[in-house]
Design goal:
mainly alpha, Rna Polymerase Sigma Factor, Chain: A, Arc Repressor Mutant, subunit A, 9 helices, disordered N terminus
Length: 188
């Protein structure tokens, strides 16, 4: 049985009402909920975190102005709307910087927004499951795996940190930890 991971993504109607009522809380929640998706989009397409922040801010301004104009009609999920606005803004910026093809429209044939968004949502779900499994793993396994895969520490550094007699023993422990993590991941 799969465990549900709850998210605090606000409802689309809640966001629209929050914008109409000038709610800073709703805008903050919008940022927390959707910025990681935009960051991934930009990083995967020749950009950096500052670019992602700029593009996301521009998309929020587009959304804000459309909602405030009074004739905003949401024909998709808000997440899809924000993603497609960010995607179009980023492609236009890349085009302006001459880092990509001349016509932004060319991309719509290759990566439909819905497919790209579905893929991103599935990756998000997998990352959440992995994070949950990692939390369940316990020590020292959690730290060993984080040190090796996230902090890029060598097996010798991990061996020294945990007092193993040599790097091979630390490597054996890392393997056992990975097996436990794999088991936990596929149980969720």
């Amino acid at each position: 049985m799969k465990k549900e991971i709850k998210s605090s993504v606000p409802a689309d109607s809640e966001i629209v009402l929050g914008i109409l009522n000038d709610s800073k809380d709703v805008l903050n929640r919008l940022y927390v909920s959707y910025f990681p998706m935009v960051l991934q989009l930009i990083l995967n397409n020749n950009g950096n975190e500052d670019d992602a922040k700029d593009i996301f801010q521009e998309s929020v301004i587009v959304l804000y102005n459309k909602v405030k104009s009074g004739n905003f009609e949401l024909n998709s999920k808000l997440k899809t709307f924000i993603y497609s606005v960010c995607r179009r803004l980023w492609l236009k910026r890349l085009n302006a910087q001459s880092r990509t093809v001349r016509n932004v429209e060319d991309f719509s044939e290759f990566i439909p927004v819905e497919e790209d968004l579905e893929s991103h949502e599935e990756k998000d779900r997998q990352f959440e499951l992995m994070e949950y499994a990692l939390r369940q793993l316990g020590e020292p396994c959690k730290t060993i795996i984080e040190d090796y895969y996230i902090h890029n520490r060598s097996m010798q550094e991990i061996s020294d940190k945990f007092g193993y007699t040599n790097a091979d023993n630390a490597k054996t422990q890392k393997y056992k930890c990975l097996q436990r993590l794999k088991k936990l991941f596929f149980q969720t």
